[in-house]
Specification:
Structural class: mainly alpha
Distance between the termini: 35 Å
Low-confidence stretches: none
Largest sheet: none
Strand content: under 5%
Shape: globular
Order of helices and strands: HHHHHHHHH
Helix content: over 70%
Mean pLDDT: 83
Radius of gyration: 17 Å
Number of strands: 0
Length: 205
């Protein structure tokens, strides 16, 4: 049975709220890195994992034709993760600014090409009766997402033995975005691959 107009409206409202929160969630972390002039205490694998998660989740949510706010989310947090990665190279590895710009530009171009290619592959697989390709990328996104937390937890518990350099405002926005996104999916559709990344975000935060 098709979802009612009210449920579709709620899906978009919660999806938009989740997108807004997740579009800005990493901005406090970016600002804190800028203010401290270092990314000490942050695990590079956390942000690379999230970046890869976004590259897998992006074509999946496009293929599933979920609401526009949910489609925008992985593009936003993936790009902000790329910026934080570049901050690591600039502040702690003493890279030149032009190198950082080059890395970010390469990510944008290659990432866009990758997502278009995977989206086309999903359509081709479905046309030829090959099932499970979209689900595989939804699950792969969750694996990258959750896997990124391991190195950060190790850094806090075993290397630094304290929380260093992590913005608590970022964590609060992260949790709020996860709740709103889960509610958006739950209003009309709650498929496992779609929901796993958001549950991982919420639980880990």
């Amino acid at each position: 049975m098709a979802p009612s107009h009210t449920l579709q409206t709620l899906e978009n409202v919660f999806g938009t709220l989740g997108t807004v929160l997740w579009c800005i969630q990493l901005l406090p972390q970016v600002y804190l890195n800028y203010k401290r002039k270092t990314t000490q205490g942050l695990s590079v694998w956390l942000y690379l994992g999230w970046l890869l998660s976004g590259l897998c989740l992006g074509p999946y949510v496009i293929y599933q034709n979920i609401n526009i706010p949910i489609i925008v989310q992985p593009q936003c947090y993936g790009s902000l993760c790329a910026i934080i990665f570049i901050q690591m190279l600039y502040y702690d590895r003493k890279w030149k600014p032009w190198k950082g710009v080059a890395v970010f530009s390469t990510y944008m171009v290659v990432g866009a090409g990758w997502q278009v290619g995977i989206w086309e592959a999903m359509k081709a697989a479905d046309k030829n009766g090959v099932k499970g390709v979209p689900m595989a990328f939804g699950i792969l996104s969750a694996i990258f997402l959750s896997g990124g937390f391991g190195p950060q937890i190790y850094q806090i518990w075993f290397k630094d033995r304290e929380v260093i350099g992590i913005s608590y405002l970022f964590l609060a926005l992260d949790s709020g975005g996860a709740v709103a996104s889960i509610m958006s999916l739950g209003t009309t559709r709650l498929r496992l691959p779609e929901s796993l990344p958001y549950f991982f975000f919420l639980c880990a935060s």
